[in-house]
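Notes from hallway chat w/ T.B., transcribed later so I don't forget. T.B. wanted the structure written out for a chain they're using in a teaching module, and asked if we could keep both sequence and structure tokens in one place. Agreed to drop them here.
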Amino acid sequence: MKKGLPVIFLILCGLAFMGFKVRLDHIPRSRVFGSSIIYLPRGTFLKPATLGFSSLAADLVYLWAIQYYSTPEITDRFEYLDHIFSIIFELDPRSLDPYETGAIISVYEAENIDLALQMLEKGYANNPDQWLFPFQAGHYAQYFLKDFERAKRYYGQAAAIEGAPAQTKRLYANALFETTDYQTSWLVWQEVYETAEDARTRKIAENHLYRVKATVDIETIKEALLTYKNRYGHFPDELDRLVQSGLLPSVPPDFDGKNYLYDPLTGDVGTQAQWMKR
């Protein structure tokens, strides 16, 4: 009898879902509101009631959720988006698709980026071997929020997971640069350069190394120029004066060994080439 329970349970669940769908299909979309969703218990409370079939229950709720959230006539459907997908996550934490789908719905339909990030963070917490969740979170944080601090954290998590695509480390290095962590950005870009498997990737890494060095060098030179001007009332006629005045140990060259451009009238310092077009 015990061996027959799984089959009976599957049949009952299938019939229940089919019956629900038939009823839903006969209801005008404008009348389907789904406010009763709030009465569904948390997945942690619902799980014991599934009699060991929590993964199947999660799949059924997931299939229902896809139908529900693809119905634009239900104008209040996003009100309980977090609750519904939390039920799925708690019933089957290792099911990967719901995290990604829930995040996509949150971003592109509900326009709730923070909720999408929360879902992906749950996915990463429950599946720390899956690089996709922090990778997607990094993309959403960077592209939609322009929050490079969060993007840096997410990309760093993804890059540390075996199997993450090569571009993950490049995105991480760029986020480090955008948050002015130039030293770490330099080290990561150096690693990308040294481990690159093709000339294109090496060139990308080289250009970014050029950019990081130029940014640090120019900031250092400009600080010395400001000190010089405050001391003497004007900018020096050439950058070597900064060395002669003891403000710099030497004038650094750029990544290619060339001198930086300098305008003694304005104190402006720049590179001879655009870092992306060297």
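Follow-up for T.B.: Residues 40 and 91 are 13 Å apart (CA to CA). Might be a good example for the class.
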